[in-house]
Amino acid sequence: MAKRTGIEVSIAIAEAARQANVDVVSAYPITPQTHIVEHLAQLVADGDLDAEYITVESEHTAMSACVGASAAGARVFTSTSSQGLALMNEIVYLASSLRTPVIMALANRALSGPISIWNDHSDVMNERDTGWICIFANNGQEAYDLTLMAFRIGEDRRVMLPVMVNFDGFILTHVIEPIHIFEDQEIADFIPPYEPLCVLDTDNPITVGPVGVPDVYTEAKKQQEMAIRESRPVIEEVFEEFARRYGRRYRPVETYRADDAEIVLLAQGSVIEAAEVAVDHLRDQGKKVGTVELRLWRPFPFDDLREVLCSTSIKQVVVLDRCISFGGPPGPVLSEVRSALYLEKDKPMVVGVVAGLGGRDISLEEYVEMFEIGEECLRTGKDPGEEPELVKIVGLRE
Amino acid sequence: MKLKERPTWKELPFACCIPEPGNSVYYKTGDWKTLKPVVDKTKCIKCGTCWIFCPEYAYEEDEYGYYESNYEYCKGCGICYRECPAQCITMEEEVVE
Ligand code: SF4
Ligand code: SF4
Is the ipTM of this complex over 0.90? Predict the structure, then answer.
């Protein structure tokens, strides 16, 4: 039986990797992810985890080592944040296109500049189109659970893709939470040994990562696109099995008090739980509000989102982005939610706000303000901003 | 092979792996060139410098010890022409009939 233990979330994530019995860990320490790889390095050094810990001089090399190790048939884990992920970027694309199911714990942190070690989602949004399966956790338990499930999803023969598990830096990584940690044996049953599909082996040589001439590249990209799309039912299956085994159910799109809501706040990560407090507060005043969470970011859960938002009581969506697409929509989540609903007949209006950049806390009043922006939009039938495309930052000093 | 006859996305090997080692010899890159090296065997000293320097491994040694470029792979870079100590290589225009 799982024991409920007071544990730092970073340590719980590292424990998930240990319980998954990873063969290779390669990472470079960066705040706020450091405790995860520090703990794994300690486990390897103490002989508590039979794995190769490859120390490297940069994240670019860390990801290169991960891809190489995975191509050689190893179960591989890494973790990074912000600038570290940006430095990895080139090889992040290779992990997905070479179909090496590397599992990454991404402690979300703002990108420079100015230099910020604190939380927002600019690091992950930069990797949106890298072809990784991308999932968000809201709390420590979810970060632990989803790290475990990531191995099952990514390494499934029908998937064979890398998975990025997102959890907010500091807000989650450095917090001690009561987390149900499973017995090692329970996880051994849930995560069988990794069976690679295509292995670098000197006795049976193959080439991994060759040139793709114009005759081939297009077809290779289509193959990759279908692989991530076809991971959807597998993700669903793993969520389902996890719920059956352990009683905690995960969904690609999660909702809170959204059933009869008129206005919902849509977001990702730990802000969702804070927003739920605001929802309770507003519900006490008789307002019909709720939250919608895009837990699964890639593959994008189009159908689930439409089922929640279209032809329901929901008339207004306020999308909270944790980063800015400069000169653009202006938030990546806003732009994707709008485009997912574009062809629907009975759809809610969608307005976007940005908040919580570079570790700025979002207060209860500010969540209430976001719902008020939604109310105004619903009342007037138009975006309440000066110009619709101009970023509306909640909590900005004007 | 025509573009339409090449493997579809479903037929391509998983992640574009190449399961057959050394199959790059099937990929003839020689049609990239505009100039081709021609060896004057009357001046050649059979030193093999061209064979060593050729980045495409295009030179092959014949039964008499002379070296000749295989035009199916030679890309016409001219390195052999520049490096040949006997200056017996000339670069001539490739004419496609
Ligand atoms: S021209 Fe270049 S590719 Fe051709 S044989 Fe000489 S060195 Fe090799
Ligand atoms: S480098 Fe010149 S001389 Fe030497 S083998 Fe080649 S062609 Fe002959």
Answer: no
